[in-house]
Amino acid sequence: MAIKVDRSNFTVAETDHYFRNHLQEHPVNTIRHSRGFSTVESQVVIRENKDCLYSHAVVDVSEGAYLANPAWDRYSIIQVIDENQYSFAHLYPGESLTITPDMVTRGHHVWLNIRTEVRPENGAGFYDAHRHQDAYVVRASSAKPYVSKGFDPESLAATRMELLLLSSTVDTWEAFGTAETVKPGPFLIASAGGWAGLPKEHAIYYPKIVPPATAAALEPSAITVKLPPLRYDEGGFFSVTTYGPDAFIATEDYALNHRTASANDDGTYTFHFNAPGMPNNMSTVTGWNMVLRMYLPETFEAVMEYLDELERNNISIKPIG
């Protein structure tokens, strides 16, 4: 009999869901590379972005597994997540690590969520990014199969949607990391709406800007924001990404970042939604939502001050026209 999913076991069930789906097409210890940006058809996990190329793997660490991110001059990270959905290791270019069984909190397999920057976004940039993808190293000492735990898919989907309704309430900087660093409530909610998010030292996500009813119904709208304090010289980036009500990519022109968008004369950025012909325009579906992404913060405190200013100044999505 399938195991019913509720809030008490959702994080493990959701991780099992992604592990199982991946392994249907890709053997354990092998990396699946996306050679282009995520699309409606190619997305793998919830709330992917258009800032990097994704690569994924399920790796057996029961006898140890060596991971390496080769030296490079672009943004790249190998994120390691265990079966409890804790994000406990993060390798930047030039870094390596051997994952041992004592480093995981459940089971003997981990998920690699790998992000690879494309800069510039042209043929040469993609060629360089693909070469770096092919250079990632995964050397596991064993290849034991991952055995799915048998969770009920219907109750899993129902619990996911229940938690997604709470996504805009989450302080995501309390939601991603290890058992010692996350708070249970935000961790649970974000395990549905932001699976495989990075801890606050690496990235900060802001899902709290909610489209008003008119914008959600596809009336033209816009938001203007300043650049957040990030380590841009190290490949840090800021982006706006839109999603459907289920938090998956729903259109083809769903995201822009500070490199692909045009800045205003004062250095701010105005992002338009469902406003054809306007600069920095994105198309959405009814009931859409959005996330501000801020990768490589200068400091956590500096980004918190930036977000506090957004809230003090009531920066929000407003109708235009």
Automatic annotation (TrEMBL):
Record domain DUF1254: where: 28-91
Q: Which residues form the signal peptide?
A: none
Q: Which domain of life is it from?
A: Bacteria
Quote the InterPro entries the UniProt record gives.
DUF1214_C_sf, DUF1254
Name of the protein in its database record: Lytic murein transglycosylase
